[in-house]
From TrEMBL:
<dbReference type="InterPro" id="IPR032675">
    <property type="entry name" value="LRR_dom_sf"/>
</dbReference>
<keyword id="KW-0433">Leucine-rich repeat</keyword>
<feature type="region of interest" description="Disordered">
    <location>
        <begin position="848"/>
        <end position="906"/>
    </location>
</feature>
<keyword id="KW-0812">Transmembrane</keyword>
<protein>
    <recommendedName>
        <fullName>Protein kinase domain-containing protein</fullName>
    </recommendedName>
</protein>
<dbReference type="GO" id="GO:0016020">
    <property type="term" value="C:membrane"/>
</dbReference>
<feature type="transmembrane region" description="Helical">
    <location>
        <begin position="207"/>
        <end position="224"/>
    </location>
</feature>
<keyword id="KW-0732">Signal</keyword>
<feature type="compositionally biased region" description="Acidic residues">
    <location>
        <begin position="896"/>
        <end position="906"/>
    </location>
</feature>
<feature type="compositionally biased region" description="Low complexity">
    <location>
        <begin position="865"/>
        <end position="881"/>
    </location>
</feature>
<keyword id="KW-1133">Transmembrane helix</keyword>
<dbReference type="Pfam" id="PF07714">
    <property type="entry name" value="PK_Tyr_Ser-Thr"/>
</dbReference>
<dbReference type="Pfam" id="PF23598">
    <property type="entry name" value="LRR_14"/>
</dbReference>
<dbReference type="InterPro" id="IPR003591">
    <property type="entry name" value="Leu-rich_rpt_typical-subtyp"/>
</dbReference>
<dbReference type="InterPro" id="IPR011009">
    <property type="entry name" value="Kinase-like_dom_sf"/>
</dbReference>
<keyword id="KW-0325">Glycoprotein</keyword>
<dbReference type="InterPro" id="IPR000719">
    <property type="entry name" value="Prot_kinase_dom"/>
</dbReference>
Length: 906
């Protein structure tokens, strides 16, 4: 009886379980909507997915990889890690139109799946139920459409590691449900949208590794849930807003590798949960607030290196209980080490206080660190045994050690502090015998060195002379040119240069196209598609199968030097900058012809778009307005400035002229003609020597011969481009030396810093210019003239030219009062105030925090010009500059010099 019941109950249970599971199967595991099924199949074919992952016949919900369904609808798609079919991978594109029919889709993850193209505009309008969008590492490019701001259900937006350009749309600030926003490792420019202050649910915000500039919006301080904040590796130049201190949940803060200024606000002590504080490699200064690190503290990592901090280090910093890494190297910190011993069992912590001004004896506090770098300070006394062998102690004033500072250095440092130096522990004579010997031998070494150095210098000069002659000879015979130049192996500053002569890895850049594909794209290289016979190859228009318009350079190796395309490819593989024309791929399969495939630039090049036919019947020409011309000049200067100053070794373009300045649909500059590039010969000192050698013969023209391998040559050519922009006389920049001489004689006399009106005589008559703009024109003319200085050493550096063009009024107004040479400014606020003038809209310009900056004047002009520029990109948007100029007239304007300034290094 009892048994019976149990059996019955069991049977019932089984039955229920069975029903439930089949119910589940029907309800959840089968796709019910035919529309969604069709959509998935559509996606499968446009993305080229394999039947292994998504078998056509099977039910997507139950069988397909990476699909999840809810109530018979597709709720999640994860194609990350998928491979495409062979057909699909030939033409990988961002074609996901079918997604619009998956109306219940909550998550789309394509991380790592190659989606060449841009995010479609309709994403924002149609995928409204989307909660998670992960498009990281998909090689997506172009700007993010502002419409993404409509996806208000989003909680996670992952767009890192792509090639996005343009500004970060401020509409993303509407995504108030976002918890994770990761835009890192792209090429975003512009400033951080102020609207981000509304993303109150963010726990993670990452904009690192972009080209974002301007300030950190105060509003970030309102993101109280934030745990991770990373703005590192950008160009942010404001001070750190005190409001950041409100982020009491923050665990990670990384602001390193920017240009942040000002001091650390004491309010940062509010970061109670901070474990990692990375603020190294900025331009921060001042002393650390005493209470910056309250105990108890979770801090594990504190990196303040390579700033301008001074003063003492707060005592608590040495004794943070959780500390694992303290790196404050490369500042002006001073004081003595805390004289205390801690019973911390953590002896693995690392301490780097090198290159500061610490002094006094070593103390037991060092016991708690497993690795210490104390080099480059003024520590004195004996080295205690608890300082272990792998500690770095060079360049101090320590006893019984080699590689210490000289007695003189140490004594004068301590004397200046009103202290006595222990004289390396030796009897109190002025010159300890041991040291004196070494000083004497030092002197001998110095004499020997200078003799050898003199001989070396002469040898060097001879070698350089030979090289010079060699270079000139090479130029004569075009077929051999470039042999000695070698492959360009520049690296963006920061990484160490690779060994010379590294081979080119073709797989690392662009796609490989087949010749067949190119024939198809260009209609068998039909003459109809020929754009022009360029000097490094013929340029053809083409349309890839995918519909992408491209420009194809056909290089005939029988008439071109062989190295040129390799140089160019190598260049593209090493440098990447939004101001260089994007190389999409190459086709090297034919022996005698090589092909490079570039992105098509809708507005051609400057030489062809300075004037363009209007659509009307009468064949009249419309010329570019002044604002656009100035924008083009700035864009080109940015590109060149990148090549000259941000690549090590510097890259010389060598073919700067109007036809090398390509223009995209928004007239943003993309430098082309990169087949002539080479690294600047020698380093600065050498080139100065070569300049010396050159002086006698180069007094007049200064452009020919091997001079073309110096940055100054680019500057010269750029001067011609500027003249062309000012005067509208086509062809100046392509002219020969003789023609240019003629042009110069006609034009240069009208460029004077003392007389604005003169310039009117040479200004392009088709420009409509009011009084304000005339000053800008005048300024550009002056810059052009200084670029055309016959003496290469007197030409300004590209980076100063860039600054001058960014704020032209500064050039002329300062000129009037002072010396006759081009002057520029290093003011960051001035810099920032100009960016709004042409980069897209200025509604995104962030506002500098009130009350936390040391430069209120800079702020106001920053805001002001942002506002004025938003009103119009028309002919008179320069109108507001005057006021911003006056605000800054008291600042210091360093003159451009031949010295290469100290570059920002890591
Ligand atoms: C599935 O549908 C049922 C009934 O319509 C509903 O109650 C449930 O919330 C739905 N589940 C989801 C995840 O949409
Ligand atoms: C997405 O799919 C890939 C490949 O099938 C898989 O390895 C990965 O774990 C999935 N990721 C998630 C978050 O489901
Ligand atoms: C979405 O579904 C409708 C109805 O079946 C269909 O007409 C349309 O083409 C589909 N859209 C896309 C982009 O596949
Ligand atoms: C997307 O898929 C990748 C790979 O499986 C995974 O690492 C990542 O976390 C996923 N993204 C999201 C937002 O879940
Ligand atoms: C960006 O584009 C360059 C060249 O087009 C390419 O080599 C690189 O891999 C791309 N980066 C990413 C993250 O897709
Ligand atoms: C989506 O965003 C765009 C641009 O931000 C806007 O113009 C449009 O009105 C929005 N559409 C909807 C449905 O919200
Ligand atoms: C000016 O801003 C641009 C864009 O961020 C940056 O590249 C440049 O270094 C800035 N110059 C100075 C002097 O701050």
């Amino acid at each position: 009886m009892v048994d019976h019941r149990i059996v019955l109950a069991l049977k019932l249970l089984l039955l229920v379980l069975f029903f439930e599971s089949t119910f589940e199967q029907q309800q959840q595991e089968r796709l019910s909507s035919p529309i969604e099924r069709a959509a998935l199949l559509g996606l499968r074919s446009t993305l080229g997915l394999r039947s292994r992952d998504w078998p056509r016949k099977a039910d997507p919900c139950s069988v397909w990889n990476g699909i999840k369904c809810e109530n018979g609808s597709v709720s999640e798609i994860n194609i990350s890690g998928f491979k495409r079919t062979r057909l699909g991978s030939q033409n990988p594109q961002f074609r996901v139109d079918s997604l619009v029919n998956l109306t219940r889709l909550k998550s789309f993850n394509a991380s790592g799946f190659y989606l060449l193209g841009s995010i479609p505009d309709w994403f924002g309008q149609r995928l409204v139920s989307l909660q998670v969008l992960d498009l990281s590492s998909c090689s997506i490019n172009n700007a993010i459409p502002g419409s993404l701001g409509n996806l208000t259900s989003l909680t996670g937006l992952y767009l890192y590691d792509n090639n996005f350009t343009g500004m970060i749309p401020s509409s993303l600030g509407q995504l108030v449900g976002l918890s994770v926003l990761d835009l890192s490792a792209n090429m975003f420019t512009g400033s951080i949208p102020v609207s981000f202050g509304s993303l109150r649910n963010l726990t993670r915000l990452d904009i690192s590794m972009n080209f974002v500039f301007g300030s950190i919006p105060v509003g970030i301080g309102m993101l109280l849930k934030l745990q991770y904040l990373n703005f590192s590796n950008n160009d942010l130049s404001s001070s750190i807003p005190a409001q950041l201190g409100d982020l009491s949940n923050l665990v990670d803060l990384d602001l390193s590798f920017n240009s942040l200024t000002g001091s650390l606000p004491a309010e940062l002590k509010g970061l109670r949960n901070l474990q990692r504080m990375l603020i190294g490699n900025n331009m921060l200064g001042g002393s650390l607030p005493v209470n910056l690190f309250p105990v108890p503290s979770q801090l594990q990592t504190v990196v303040l290196k390579s700033n301008n901090f001074d003063g003492a280090v707060p005592d608590v910093l040495w004794s943070m209980p959780q500390l694992r890494l303290l790196d404050i190297s490369g500042n002006n910190f001073t004081g003595m080490l805390l004289n205390a011993s801690l019973n911390a069992n953590t002896t693995t912590a690392e301490l780097n206080i090198s290159q500061n001004l610490f002094y006094g004896g070593l103390t037991p506090i060092l016991r708690r660190f497993g690795f210490v770098d104390l080099s480059g300070n003024y520590f004195e006394g004996r080295v205690p045994d608890y300082v272990n062998d792998n500690a770095s102690l060079v360049s101090n004033c320590l006893q019984n050690l080699s590689n210490q500072r000289s007695l003189h250095d140490c004594t004068s440092f301590y004397t200046e502090k009103g202290l006595t130096f222990d004289n390396f522990g030796l009897p109190n004579s002025t010159q300890p015998p041991a040291r004196e010997n070494s000083r004497k031998s030092n002197r001998k070494v110095i004499i020997l060195a200078s003799v050898l150095g003199g001989v070396g210098l002469i040898l060097l000069l001879i070698i350089l002379l030979v090289l010079l002659l060699f270079c000139i000879r090479k130029k004569g015979t075009t077929t051999q040119r470039g042999v000695g130049v070698g492959p360009v192996t520049p690296v963006p500053s920061g990484s160490s240069p690779p060994p010379p002569g590294v081979s080119i890895d073709f797989s690392s850049f662009g796609e490989t196209f087949t010749y067949q594909q190119l024939l198809l794209a260009t209609g068998d290289f039909s003459d109809l598609n020929l754009i022009k016979h360029g000097h490094s190859g013929d340029l053809y228009k083409g349309i890839l199968e995918s519909g992408i318009p491209v420009v194809i350079k056909r290089i005939d190796l029988q008439s071109q030097r062989k190295e040129a395309y390799l140089l160019e490819l190598d260049c593209f593989s090493k440098v990447s900058h939004p101001r260089l024309v994007p190389l999409l791929g190459h086709c090297l399969e034919k022996e005698n012809e090589k092909f490079l495939i570039y992105k098509h630039m809708p507005n051609g090049d400057l030489s062809s778009s300075l004037y363009r036919k209007t659509n009307s019947e009468d064949d009249s020409l419309k010329s570019l307005d002044w604002i656009t011309r100035l924008k083009i000049a700035i864009g080109a200067a940015e590109g060149l400035s990148y090549l000259h100053h941000e690549c090590t070794p510097s890259i010389v373009h060598r073919d700067v002229q109007a036809s090398s300045i390509l223009l995209d649909d928004k007239f943003e500059v993309r430098l082309g003609s990169l087949s002539e590039v080479c690294t600047q010969e020698g380093d600065t000192r050498q080139s100065r020597i070569t300049r010396l050698l050159r002086l006698p013969q180069s007094s007049e023209q200064g452009t020919s011969g091997s001079l073309t391998t110096t940055c100054a040559y680019d500057v010269y050519c750029f001067g011609k481009v500027l003249l062309e922009l000012v005067t509208g006389k086509l062809g100046i920049s392509a002219s020969s030396d003789a023609q240019l001489k003629e042009f110069s004689e006609q034009i240069l006399p009208y460029i004077s810093i003392y007389d604005k009106e003169l310039v009117i005589k040479i200004v392009d008559p088709s420009l409509i210019i009011d009084e304000d703009l005339l000053e800008e024109v005048w300024a550009m003319a002056i810059v052009a003239r200084s670029c055309l200085n016959p003496k290469p050493s007197r030409r300004p550096l590209m980076r100063y030219i860039l600054k001058a063009l960014e704020n032209p009024l500064k050039v002329v107004r300062e000129e009037n009062s002072g010396s006759a040479r081009l002057r520029t400014t290093s003011s960051r606020s001035w810099n920032a105030s100009l960016f709004g003038s042409w980069r897209h809209s200025s509604s995104d310009v962030a506002v500098i925090p009130a009350g936390s900056s040391a430069r209120p004047e800079g702020e106001s002009s920053f805001k002001q010009s942002g506002a004025s520029n938003s009103q119009g990109s028309g002919q008179n948007s320069g109108g507001d500059h005057s006021s911003s100029h006056r605000r800054h007239s008291r600042e210091i304007y360093p003159e451009p010099s031949d010295e290469q300034d100290v570059e920002r290094q890591d």
